[in-house]
Design brief:
34% of the residues lie in helices and 29% in strands. With 219 residues, the chain is an alpha/beta fold.
Length: 219
């Protein structure tokens, strides 16, 4: 499904070049659940941004379902992100004044999709929050907010879920609940990649790679 070959990412900070990724070669199979673990600054989030077409490599190649991502223009990249990927972040990134239902519906508004409300309701039902649809984020627990964020990631029915420290702000019970959701997503056939610095979270994936200083240190 995914193949990275000798991918680098260099950020220019004034006159200083920062090497965030240094020659990453990685394949992710369709239907796999992969954890990427490493310390802060190891390149985990940079790698996730490249996998999700949020950023482009400085050099190297990235094939997604046989498509050379480096040859896509900005509009094509945006379309791929919207159709193929669902993103879940540590900070939830919910609109604070909007209901859970509207937060989930929002990607469909941008896509100009019909039957948005019905699809958003179905996504909330899938994560067990149908009864909280009209609540705002401040009226929800951290675990509930993250489940809303997962429902939002699912509403376009993506094949690939990317999660960046999705349990970083949660207590242990909520963490277990969220990981159970990711496990269920994977059992239903979606490819799941989770960025984490916690070994117990990584251990729940089928495979783990460890980054250090922008390189794969262990796989």
């Amino acid at each position: 499904m995914i193949k990275l070959e000798n991918v680098t990412k260099v950020y220019q900070m004034g006159e200083i070049a920062v090497n965030a990724l240094n020659g990453i070669t990685l394949s992710v199979a369709k239907g796999e659940m992969l954890a990427i673990i490493g310390a802060s600054g190891s390149g985990k989030s940079t790698l996730l941004n490249i996998l999700g077409c949020l950023d482009k490599p400085t050099s190297g190649s990235y094939l997604f379902e046989g498509i050379d991502v480096g040859r896509l223009n900005d509009n094509q990249l945006a379309e791929m992100r919207n159709r193929k990927f669902g993103f879940v972040f540590q900070q939830f990134n919910l609109l604070p004044r909007a209901t859970a239902l509207y937060n989930v519906e929002l990607p469909l508004v941008y896509s100009n999709v019909y039957h948005r409300r019905e699809r958003a309701v179905e996504a909330l039902e899938w994560v067990g929050l149908a009864g909280r649809a009209n609540h705002k984020p401040t009226e929800l627990s951290g675990g509930e907010q993250q489940r809303v964020a997962i429902a939002r990631a699912l509403v376009n029915n993506p094949s690939f879920i990317l999660a960046d420290e999705p349990t970083g702000n949660l207590d242990s019970k909520s963490t277990n609940d969220i990981m159970a959701v990711f496990q269920r997503l994977n059992r239903e056939g979606r490819t799941v990649v989770i960025i984490t610095h916690e070994a117990d979270i990584a251990s729940q994936a089928q495979r783990t790679i460890r980054l250090c200083d922008g390189r794969i240190a262990d796989r």
